Amino acid sequence: MARQFFVGGNFKMNPNTQEQSVALVEALNAAKLDPATEVVIAPPSLYLLSLKAKLRKEVQLAAQNAYFKVSGAFTGEIRQLVDAGIPYVILGHSERRTLFHETSEIVAQKTRTALDNELKVILCIGETLDQRESGKTAAVCKEQLKAAVAVLKEADWSNIVIAYEPVWAIGTGKVATSAQAQEAHADIRTYLSKAISPEVAASTRIIYGGSVTASNCKELSTQTDVDGFLVGGASLKPEFVNIINAKQSQVKDS
After folding, report:
1. Which of 93, 95, 102, 185 does the annotation list as catalytic?
2. Is 62 helix (H, G, I), strand (E, B) or coil?
3. d(Cα 127, Cα 96) in Å, to the nearest integer?
4. Distance of CA 160 to the CA centre of its chain
């Protein structure tokens, strides 16, 4: 069974105004997007509901974080996403892991709670530059996934998209070569096959993130195990449409 190409736009703490966020959505609404690609955008939580009312139905919304408790005295946290009609959440992003000290175990708890509450998860993993240069990329990704594997059932993985984002490539302008991305994705798929099942490994989408642009997305999209992208800075620019259409462009060029 073919895996549907997936492109997510992580706006992070951007843009600065609601007017600017509406402009980004209006640009997407007006664009011709590949109907075969699943598209999800993750604006700041404050803008989720207002943008939901304006966004074309073919594009879905994601929150950038959610807590592992269903409710309670947890100031500043959110969980009520499904009730608000938000289908996806990004969990485990390296910025959450490093700046907010989220361990893989915490990310796993968040993933378990999200799935229990009918959210779909974009689960981020990836290595630092030191870890890559030490030849530890596969081991780091395996260790980050191991905590999630321990608390999830096989059926849960149909609602998870794994985002491999090498930390050294996020927002730096550096990007993994297509060969490096393919190797990392293939290693992740091999781990899923051994730790869960060959069926889960074959069906789970593994997307790449880390300075993805219109100029490098086409080559990355040709790799067997690269099932799409999680896009940061470029999701705030007109070139995001080109990235969404990367697979379509590949077909036209062949």
Report:
1. 93
2. strand
3. 14
4. 9
Query: Any catalytic annotation for residue 101?
Result: no
Three-state SS at 222: coil
CA angle 246, 94, 46 (to 5 degrees): 80
118 backbone φψ class: left, alpha, beta (φ>0; ψ -120 to 50): left
Q: Which residues contact 204 (CB under 8 A, 6 or more apart)?
A: 3, 157, 160, 161, 162, 189, 192
Kindly give, in sequence order, each residue whose CB lies less than 8 Å from that of residue 186, ignoring residues fewer than 6 positions away: 224, 225
At 1, is the pLDDT very low, low, confident or very high (cuts 50, 70, 90)?
A: low
Owner of token pair 């993933």 = 111
Amino acid present at 117: N
Confidence at residue 171, expressed as pLDDT on a 0 to 100 scale: 81
Give the pLDDT confidence score for residue 174 in this predicted structure.
Answer: 82
Alpha-carbon distance values, 239 to 50, 86, 154, 191 (Å): 24, 25, 36, 33
CA pair distance 90, 122, nearest whole angstrom: 5
Distance (Å, rounded) from C-alpha 217 to C-alpha 242?
Answer: 9
- For 208-221, the pLDDT digits (tens) are 999 999 999 999 99
| Residue among 38, 95, 165, 185 flagged as catalytic | 165
Quick check: is 185 catalytic? no
CA distances for 63 relative to 14, 45, 49, 154, angstroms: 13, 6, 11, 24
Q: What is the percent of the chain with per-residue pLDDT over 90, rounded to a whole number?
A: 92
pTM for the model stands at 0.96
pLDDT for res 173: 82
